[in-house]
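Let us practice reading a record.
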Amino acid sequence: MKSMDFEDDETEIEKLSQTMSKIQNLYYKKKEQLEELQFEIAELREILNSLNSLVTNKSFQSADKIYSNSIQEADKAHNNEKYFLEEFSPERVKDTNIKRKIFSKNNDKDSKLLCILNFFDFNRAEIKFIDPGDREIRETSDDFIKIFLKEGLLKIKDNNPELNLSYDHFKNSDLIECIKIFNLKSIQEYDLITSKIRELLLHKEINHEV
C-alpha cells in the first residue's frame, strides 16, 4: 500500500513539474511579446511626436516658404556625400532612434520576426533577439565570431577604438538575448552591424534547415 502511495506521489510531482515548466515557458514567451509590443508603442509615439512637431513648426509658414526650404534642403543633401544626420550637433541627435527589424527569409505570411535593432542617439546600438532559445546565438560559436565579430565589430574597432559592447544572456544560459554596443560614431557603423546580424541569422536559419 505504501509503495502504491509513493508511486502516486511521484506521478503527481511529475505532473506538477510539467505544468510548472509549461507555465514558465508561457511566461517568458508572453514577456518577450510584451517587450516587442512596448518597442512598437515607443516607435509609434516617436512618429506621432515628430508629426506633431512638424505641424506645429510649419503651420504658420507660407506655402512659398515651405517650398523654398524644401528645395534648399534637397540641394544641400544632394551636394553632401555623408548622411545628413552626421552633421547634426549632439543636441540635435539626442533622443533619436533608428529602429530596424530582421525577419526570416520567407517572404510569405509565415515570416517570423527574428531580431530588433535600435540605434539610440547615433551613439549606441541595442540588438534584441526574438525567441533567443530558437536563435541559439552564442558568443563562443564559430559563426558568431567569424561573421559578427571579425567581419563586423573588429573592422569598426580598427577605426573606432572606443567601441565597446556587452551581452545579456537568456535565462542564465550561454545564449545571447541582447547585444549592447556603445560609442558608435556613424550610421555606416550601424549599417555594417545590421548587415552582419542579418547574415548571421540567415546562416543560422539555413543550417537549421539542413
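A brief commentary: Strands lie at 97-103, 113-120, 124-129, 164-169, 176-182.
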